[in-house]
């Protein structure tokens, strides 16, 4: 019995310790911004592997989610004879919620897990410690570009996701189901505000990108350097990122769109 | 892969992001500099436009023949002045036609329906509809009915 209580207490302390360590780690990474001449090529390469290579999955999911929204919206709205509100529905859903959130979930699965595995393997093969031996700070050289890459690419991916989704919704709604093109765009434009909706969506995706990249690089850096350790760190990255994204989404939505 | 190739691909990626933002600004949330179809302008004055919005549709016999350009308030008559862009190929609307604000379905958007008149002359660009019928206001209708007027 006492052992159980002790185990519970240890788990609690471990959670607090890992929060503290990740905060310390983040501080270290943010303080160690690499010099532009050295850091920029590294950053570009990371944006390529984190962002450009995630483009395919983001575009394809965006297209299908937009098309499904178009179909579902049409079926429901046509009962009330207001299927022309479909453009407004698709745009607001994508720009406010689905764009940032689904992109962040895809990002955690596609890029976050890869980051964790890469850094974890670097740690397991002692590349990180040999860098330290050579006087190169691994936080600065390896971690920092990856964190910033997540921060930059996430809003770009989310915007592309929303645009492709709206196009997919238009394809289904206007081209196939015959909603009038003028009222599709007209309703959308009269209800979507650039600052309130689009920019708030961008802010959301910036926050999500930062959190996902932070969790991914921290889990990689902090993993147990064995094959089992790397695999559990990768799993943790995806689980924690998804939970963090969904939880933060509620908080951000309440702050941005709730009226209090 | 060569650094230069990576840099140019990342550059394209960032440009795609900016293009997406531009699309959001212009097409989804704001004004769109759309390729101008050939149209001509007609006006109509209404006592009450209800929920009519710019870019709403104008139809005749259920077929869309144009879009609403703008809705402004005429300060002299306190009426709403609706500027309409009618497709140029519909150039034979009789002068005694009426512009009527209707609602599609019970909760749908409002649009302008042109009920065709019988005059031989047709409306010219810049003309104003002589007869109009304002948006039906359900609450007013019910309160009129309840107070027996």
From TrEMBL, chain A:
Keywords: Cell inner membrane, Cell membrane, Membrane, Transmembrane, Transmembrane helix, Transport
Record bears the keyword NAD: no
Tree of life domain: Bacteria
Chief location: membrane
Subunit comment: The complex is composed of two ATP-binding proteins (MlaF), two transmembrane proteins (MlaE), two cytoplasmic solute-binding proteins (MlaB) and six periplasmic solute-binding proteins (MlaD).
UniProt family annotation: Belongs to the MlaE permease family.
The name this protein goes by in its record: Intermembrane phospholipid transport system permease protein MlaE
Gene name for this UniProt entry: mlaE
UniProtKB/TrEMBL annotation, chain B:
Keyword annotations of the record: Membrane, Transmembrane, Transmembrane helix
Domain of life: Bacteria
InterPro entries, sorted: ABC_MlaD (IPR030970), Mce/MlaD (IPR003399), MlaD_Phospholipid_Transporter (IPR052336)
UniProt KW Cell division keyword: no
Domain Mce/MlaD: from-to ranges: 39-116
Sequence intervals crossing the membrane: 6-26
Pfam families per the UniProt record, alphabetical: MlaD
NCBIfam families per record: OM_asym_MlaD (TIGR04430)
Name of protein: Outer membrane lipid asymmetry maintenance protein MlaD
Species name: Marinobacter koreensis
